[in-house]
From TrEMBL:
This is Topoisomerase I damage affected protein 2. GO terms for cellular component: cytoplasm; cytoplasmic dynein complex. GO terms for molecular function: dynein intermediate chain binding. One of its GO terms (biological process) is microtubule-based movement. It comes from Mesorhabditis spiculigera. Belongs to the dynein light chain Tctex-type family.
Length: 118
């Protein structure tokens, strides 16, 4: 299973390359965000093909005024074989909040091992 450090390194490299110094544009941020999620997924699958990956990313503009974003995630799975991480990436004018779900696609042996996290 990929470690949190491995996943964060992939996220940082992909998002930095795509968006770290770009000025914010709504139209462009939508394309950048889509490309970044696709690239992160492709790299993780290449490195660890025995897992399924679900990646969400919300990208938004950094501003001096009041702004905010609430994100919540719930998982129900076998904690010993599956994992999730949330990571905040920050560029010069954009921030992205990512949730990465890593799910072992082999059959679950025992329902008692399933856990619910909120």
């Amino acid at each position: 299973m990929p470690t949190r450090e491995e996943i964060v390194a992939v996220i940082q490299e992909v998002y930095h390359r795509a968006a770290a110094t770009k000025p914010y544009s709504f139209e462009e941020s939508t394309q950048i965000n889509k490309k970044c999620v696709e690239d992160v997924t492709a790299i993780l699958v290449e490195k660890n093909p025995n897992y399924k990956y679900i990646i969400t990313s919300a990208m938004f503009r950094l501003s001096g005024g009041d702004s905010g974003l609430g994100v919540s995630t719930v998982t129900y799975w076998e904690a010993g074989r599956d994992q999730t991480i949330t990571y905040r990436w920050e560029g010069r004018e954009m921030t992205a909040i990512l949730n990465v779900f890593i799910v072992n696609h082999q059959a679950v042996d025992d329902q008692r091992n399933l856990q619910h996290y909120a």
